[in-house]
Amino acid sequence: MGLNIGCAAAPGRARDNKTGSWRVFKPVFKYDKCVKCGLCEVVCPEGCVREGQDGYYHPDYNYCKGCGLCAEECPVDDIELVQEEK
Amino acid sequence: MMEILEGSHAVAEAVRLCRPQVVAAYPITPQTHIVEALASMVADCKLDAEYICVESEFSALSACLGASAAGSRVYSATTSQGLALMFEVCFNVAGMRQPIVMTIANRALGAPLNIWNDQQDSISLRDAGWLQFYAEDNQEATDLHFIAYRVAEDHRVLLPVMVCFDGFILTHTYEPVDIPSQEAIDAFLPPYKPVNILDAKNPMSLGMYATPDYYMEFRYEIDQAQKRAKEVFAEVGAEFAKQFGRDYSGLVEGYRLEDADMAFIAMGSICGTVREAIDEMRAEGKKVGLLKIRSFRPFPSEEIRAALSGVSKVAVLDKNISLGQKGAVALEVRDALYGSEIDVKGYILALGGRDVRQADIKAIAGLLEKGEGDQFFGLRTEVL
Amino acid sequence: MTEECELFECGHRACGGCGPALAARLILKATGENTIVVASTGCMEVFSTPYPETAWKVPWIHSLFENAAAVASGIEASLKKQERDEHVVCICGDGATFDIGMLCISGAFERGHDITYICYDNEAYMNTGIQRSGATPYDADTTTSPAGKCSTGNPRPKKDLPAILAAHGATYVATASIAYPNDLIKKVQRAVSTHGPNYIQVHAPCATGWGFDGSQTIAVGRLAIETGLWVNYEMMNGEVERVRKVAHRKPVDDYLSVQKRFRHLYRPGRNEDEIAKIQAIADANAKKFGIDLNVVKEE
């Protein structure tokens, strides 16, 4: 491949960078009390929480940096941050 | 059609014929007549362009960059302080490979404030990645705009161009100029076909940042494009000559060099004065010639070497100075001739609009013969 | 997992819990894909576009620190000539907006381009290491407005940029916060469907620069609203239209004490004078915009 003229690039290549490796704490979605409100999806700065076909929301651990915003904001306290094991 | 036109108006006519979609400019002497003329053309529906009346030269070139990135052919004009204010954007435009054409009505840079002609402004931006073409008269200034768009937009090049012509000396002088027809220019200059543009149907990220892993390669590619611009310029110039009968295919142009022992090197309107002086000196039996540099970027080193192969002494006339060093053109000519036996001397002259006459050129020839050079010429020592 | 299209892609290099990254996602949710984004140099530009890994799935351009509004002007003019209809949206930091880019912004707004300029306001130059900008609030400790023996931090209040741009004749001006995502989305949608120039200033707390845990980004943003130190409002043609009211306005301590940038106001002891001044800023905001729900209107 050559360089793209003018330092241009096709969209979305950031996905090559798996930021999940940064994680120290991991949000565990427990689905005990989940009301499928989707707030975890809305507040994620990574955009790595997506709605599954079951209507529940699932984090993509390839990209989740473990910031804990979803756990903090979950209105039913159904996401738990645990120490990442590597 | 041959018309008697002020240089600025001739250039504005040329720009109109190139059909830019967006013009963004800020007024500055001696560029104003160009952009005033373009604004009138837009107001009279003679030019179908958006004229963005920006609040600074910095925004003028920034707006051009945006419009170019969105896929339009764009135009701007400036000079001196205005070009200095664009400094940062100039590097950016070249780095982002936007084929913007901008006219430079060459003028001195302050301080002291001075509105008259020299070439310090564009020459100070020689490292920015822009191609720089210098016109000797208003016909050439007009024609170089058609050629500039063709070269800039050529996919082998994709770099911006400054078409430089001397402030007041050319911008405000009336000369007969042949303005081609729209049909002829449309045939010569097809609509702009950009490569990577901002388009929601095909999204791209433009102007990303490059880490040390990539930066140098991007700069290398700009340099390669500059070098490719040489052959593209020659090609396009030849095509222009065929279609319009005026030949600008040379990055340099010789005058009475064939049997010359001594040569002048110069850029821009001063070449006219030099030609006249040469004719007089020739009549006196001196074997003198001129090598005019039309393209300062890319710099025609090989072409200069070839053109001067039979010459033993060279006087380079610099309407600029790299303060604390020498004139930029002299330095680069010396580099081009490195290893040859040719004696190259530089003369700093005409700064801030100081007149240069035929007698001055002859006096410089005298200095060169005596081996005196690398100095200011025409200093008023009585005021020092 | 359904493949819902995210226009701001995973894999960007923002800190965990980044307010501006969340702002970018929410803004693009609102604008949709028929949008051209113009970025300034800054944190967001750097964390989202190291060549060749861009997080942007809409057309995106970065030129310089201070010229986004001028670049956007040119894009808008070009689109007009080509009869294209993409939204032109600048997304720039507060340094690029409040300080170095003011000239270009002023020009673009005065000329009346149909653009939406969004400032993600994290209240300092974060990319270069937390230096003060014209958006930095009073008394905030930054690396160029450090608190010290004879300094209580940033000596000046935040510049009122929404008012300045409203005075330029902006069609729509709004403030928003990442702590109120749906409100932010609605405002961006309103802006891009309104002929500009439009301006939205988004409060985007920065965990690293302000000194709090990344999990608290939204909580801190919420406290700014709840204390009256940030007011969410909309202006149309220069008139304030809607303001987010606050039921029981909290003391500014609730906001200040959770951030390291205001820590010096509490150590060694509580700096009563300075905190009173900040409370006065909140009170003035509350009065100016009428945000208090529990106050009986004075006749």
Describe the model:
The complex is a heterotrimer of chains A (86), B (384) and C (299). In chain A, the strands form two sheets. In chain A, strands 1-4 form a two-stranded antiparallel sheet. In chain A, strands 2-3 form a two-stranded antiparallel sheet. Chain A has a domain at 33-86: 2-Layer Sandwich (Alpha-Beta Plaits). The mean pLDDT of chain A is 94. Chain A contains two helices and four strands. Chain A has 86 residues and is an alpha+beta fold. With 384 residues, chain B is an alpha/beta fold. Chain B folds into two domains: 2-244, Rossmann fold (3-Layer(aba) Sandwich); 252-383, 3-Layer(aba) Sandwich (Rossmann fold), CATH 3.40.50.920. Chain B contains 13 helices and 16 strands. In chain B, the strands form three sheets. In chain B, strands 3-2-4-5-7-6-13 form a seven-stranded mixed sheet, sandwiched between helices. Chain B has a six-stranded mixed sheet with strand order 10-12-11-14-15-16, with helices on both faces. In chain B, α3 packs parallel to α5 and α10 (270-283) crosses α13 (358-370). Chain C is α/β, with parallel strands linked by helices and 299 residues long. Chain C has eleven helices and ten strands. Chain C has helices at 19-31, 43-48, 68-82, 94-100, 102-111, 161-167, 181-192, 207-210, 217-227, 253-256, 272-289; strands at residues 35-39, 60-62, 87-93, 116-121, 147-148, 151-152, 172-177, 198-203, 233-236, 239-243. In chain C, β5 and β6 (151-152) form a beta hairpin. The radius of gyration of chain C is 19 Å and the shape is globular. Classes of the chains: A alpha+beta (86), B alpha/beta (384), C alpha/beta (299). At the B-C interface, β3, α3, α5 and β9 of B face β1, β2, α3 and α5 of C. β9 (205-206) of chain B pairs parallel with β2 of chain C.
By DSSP, the count of extended strands of chain C is 10
* Helical amount of chain C: 25-40%
Class from helix and strand fractions of chain B:
alpha/beta
Mean of pLDDT of chain C: 96
Query: Nearest-angstrom radius of gyration of chain C?
Result: 19 Å
Helix content of chain B: 25-40%
What is the residue-mean pLDDT of chain B, rounded to a whole number? 98
Number of helices of chain C: 11
Order of helices and strands of chain B: EHEHEHEHHEHEHEEHEHEEHEEHEHEHE
Biggest beta sheet attributes of chain B? 7 strands, mixed
